[in-house]
Amino acid sequence: MHALLRLGDDALVLAQRLGEWCGHAPALEEDIALTNIALDLIGQTQSYLSLAGSLDPETPKTDDELAFLRSDREFKNLLLVEQSNGHFGDTIARQFLFDKYALLRAEHIAQQTFDLDAAAIAAKAVKEIRYHADHSSKWIIRLGDGTPESHSRIQKSINDLWKFTGEMFAADEVDIAGSIAGLLPDLKALKIQWDLEIDKVLVEATLVRPEDGVMKTGGRKGVHTEALGVMLAEMQILPRTHPGASW
Amino acid sequence: MSDNKSTWPLWEVFVRSRQGLGHKHVGSLHACDAEMAIGNARDVYTRRQEGVSIWVVPAESISASSPSDSEALFDPANDKVYRHPTFFVLPDEVNHM
Fold first, then answer.
1. Chunked in runs of 10, what are the mean pLDDT values of chain B (97 residues)?
2. Were A157 and a residue from A24, A63, A90, A135 both cysteine, which residue would form a disulfide, CB within 3.0 to 4.6 Å?
3. Which of B42, B13, B16 has its CA nearest to residue B26?
4. What is the pLDDT of residue A56?
């Protein structure tokens, strides 16, 4: 349940953030690209949260109930994905750091046999995330290896978000149990792969990889940055004000 | 490619909707390079399963016939009905030709 909630919440919170770009992206083409990615992530959210909500037969919950009727302390997403959009470069940097992680994680889940429902969801997600990672990587390269201004701004975006990357690999009891069962990847091994993937793109983008300093964590325990509460208030207002509303 | 640095160059997009068919012009978009043009074309023109293959061509690479030449170019074909293969008698077994 917890492991699936994390997968669903990562996708849901990032999707909501990307959706905020709708109508505001720097170009029509990019507007559609970002919202397409958001829709892919909402699809993954529906699958993971439906599965998570069905696991406890005593108190079954629908994906909508989990998405719209939980408070911020009950959300288990990474701090990285809830960070506000900032400028386009900040959004791309956040997406790039997450996509590379999400892809490796989904590839593992798609291949494991402990939970075949989760494997089926991940197998579909892998194809989507592969495109997301390609999209964000190419932007990192384009901006990093672009003009002096785009280079310095995307470098700053990566530097600013770096403190949220440690949480992706900080294994707690849920990660360890999930990894022993086979459902989740071993985060130590995943970090080595992620480092390689990130470095490959940063080198091509002529960007410098930040030092691993003090890392911020807490999202997996429900202790979030203040950005999440504001985002959830907007996301949840309709179903909370009009319970059972359909549209 | 473009002197105007505030806009990306224009690309024409061609999508093949099914195996065996030809690529068909579907529209245009802006992108700063070919890779990005394909990515954008995928998002803008194939998100409802419209295609299996995409071509993008810089719009400035396309040479078009001029509307003012249309009489000289196209009118002479008007009275050449013998260029249509409509004078052959087909056997009944051939239904769709």
1. 67 91 94 93 89 94 90 84 79 75
2. A90
3. B13
4. 82
Against a cut of 0.90, is the pTM above it?
no
Compute the distance between CA of residue A205 and CA of residue A139 in angstroms, rounded to an integer: 9
**Cβ(A110)–Cβ(A126) below 8 Å:** yes
End-to-end C-alpha distance for chain B, whole angstroms: 46
> What residues pair up with B11 in beta bridges, in sequence order?
B29, B58
**If residue B14 lies in a helix (H) or strand (E), which one and from where to where?**
strand B10-16
Contact: B31, A29; criterion CB under 8 Å: yes
Question: What is the reported pLDDT for A70?
Answer: 95
Q: Do A144 and A93 contact (CB within 8 A), yes or no?
A: no
Phi, psi (degrees; rounded to nearest 5) at B56: -125, 140
Please name the member of B32, B35, B40 whose beta carbon is closest to the beta carbon of A33.
B40
Question: A82 with A228: CB under 8 angstroms?
Answer: yes
Contacts of B42 in chain A (CB under 8 A): 131
Which residue, among A18, A21, A28, A29, would best test binding to B if mutated, counting the most B CBs under 10 Å from its CB?
A29
- On the 0-12 / 13-18 / 19+ scale of CB atoms within 10 A, B76 is exposed
Measured between CB atoms, does A58 come within 8 Å of chain B?
no
Calpha distance A73→A220 (Å, rounded): 10
Tell me, rounded to whole angstroms, the distance of Cα A192 from its chain centroid: 19
What does the alpha-carbon distance between residue A133 and residue A154 come to, in Å, rounded to a whole number? Answer: 16
Task: Give the pLDDT of residue B97.
Answer: 59
Structure tokens at A175: 């990660």
pLDDT under 50: residue ranges of chain A? none
For residue A61 the two structure tokens come to 């919950």
Radius of gyration, alpha carbons of chain B: 20
Provide the shortest C-alpha distance from residue A109 to chain B (in Å). Answer: 26
Exposed/middle/buried for A160, CB within 10 Å: 0-12, 13-18, 19+? middle
Distance CA A76, CA A7 (A): 9
The reported pLDDT for the residue numbered B2 is: 42
**Predicted pLDDT of residue A1:** 64
Task: Read off the tokens for A49.
Answer: 């949260």
